[in-house]
Amino acid sequence: MYSMLVELKIENFGIIENLKFKAGKGLNIITGETGSGKSLIIQALGIVLGDRAGTGYIRNGANKTTIEAIFEISKNDSIKKELREIFKFYNIAWDEEIITIKREIYFDGKPRAMINNTPVSLAILKEIGSKLVEIHGQHENQRLLDPAFHLDFVDRFGGLEKLKEKVSKLYHEWIENKKKIKSVSLKENEKKLRKEFLEFSIKEIEEFNPKEGEYEKLLNEKSIILNSGKLFEDLTYCYSVLQEEDHSVLSILQNIEKILEKHSSLMNELNNSLDLIRESIYNIESVVDIIREKRTTINYSEERLEDIEERLEGYKKLFKKYGSSTQKILQKKEEFKKELYSIEMSDEEKELLKSKLNIIEQELKEAAEELSNQRKKIIPVLEEKISKELEELGMKNAKIKISLSRELLTKEDIESEDEHSFKNHDSFKLSEKGFDQIEFLFLANEGEMLLPLRKIASGGELSRIALILKSILMDKSEPLCVVFDEIDTGIGGETAFILGKKLKQIALEQQVITITHLHQVASMANRHFKIYKIIRNSRTYTEIERLMGENRLKELARMLGGTEPIVIEHAKEILNKAQEISSGA
What we know:
By secondary structure, the protein is α/β, with parallel strands linked by helices. It has helices at 38-48, 77-89, 122-132, 147-158, 161-184, 188-208, 214-226, 228-244, 249-263, 270-297, 302-322, 326-343, 347-392, 411-415, 453-456, 459-472, 493-506, 519-522, 549-560, 565-583; strands at 4-13, 16-21, 27-31, 64-72, 98-106, 112-115, 118-119, 133-136, 399-406, 436-443, 451-452, 481-485, 511-515, 527-536, 539-547.
């Protein structure tokens, strides 16, 4: 059994006043008439996971929208381990069983996001949300158009992540060493000028000797000196009122203490009050001591003010040249020292660096070539698998071919000593993902030309391709829950049953939530929900209901076109057929 979305609570969101969607294991299907609010469920889920949301979503008459999602994670050790590390890094409260995410949108205030009652930024919310739910809709399917996704998909399908990670690590080592070589290989004149600049900058910073927190302390001390007259006057007044005057606060409280003490033996109830008076005396005496001490430190000094101004100006000069904070200045100094060391390296050290670069370069070339060879082996297998899936989903004449190519280095790349090209001027560019560029090419109908998927695929085609890719990688997918919206556009008949079967197959490994208008797909549900609108007191409300038994038959009949007995019988046949298809999955 896997982990999943347990409940989605929505308040004052569009035409939804108060709705609770309690999803379950397996395939969760949502149906309903056009305009009933089905898409609001997916929009609300997207917003609670980090999508941007404006005040336009707030229901008329309400001052805020609240969306809360509860996830059960106890049965998925891999995702739990990954999330635990992320929560620890961001200092978010952790629970081994449940993750609760809440998003609030206000008319007159900044939106708030919380995970396990810990406030988080939108960026953190998105990062964690992506580990929990994967939404496939018209907007989300746009990532299918990105060639970078195509390359990553091929590698995931082929299990090449470790080899690609090796290439990436070697690539970054290679780039870093090329930078070092470039630094130590400057022309002598350039080297001399750079060395002089570095030495001057390091000396300037070290002679000034900036210290963490000093700038802020100096600003505070300057403010005290400039306000010393009024500050001394006010502290003197406070000191006098508390202790020095004939009827000071302390003298009055001490008199009260004596009176209460005199009568406490006769009236025991006064003892508590006496304790409070004594505590107050003690606290005020502490305040008096602090005021007395601070008053003696206040001293207007023209000389000290001049010293502070001079020191602050020194900081401002360094801020302008090396960074906007003391920390950045100190970091810059260390960077300058490292660069200076590189420039001053001995010839022997330079040769060692070049030798190391050659070794890394050779290892990188070999690993990148191996990665490329593995991709070449995987691509035909993947193409065949996708073709079969396309045919099953009613796209018999559609084809996806996977283009694998390399980008040639230009003459300008070589002449400019581009750090992303090999020193020995190999003819192909290299990235952290290897030599290859991969892109899915798509042909929707026989006789047409294969073109990049990003140029020709329709929304409905993208949704089905997304389903195919998800089913192919369902054993490698990370999120707890997968959502498909508008995936059945342009599908009907037996193909719709195949679509439902594929959704059910994915739901064996992950929780699936799907909005559909097809009775064939709805019949496959483990849990079937209906979204509907009602009108009360001239206001429209959206409600959700889990359908079982006769109610489910009636909804399937509605989707078939009527509620007559003969249509109900047809709905029963549809359910029986869905059960047969599911059992043969």
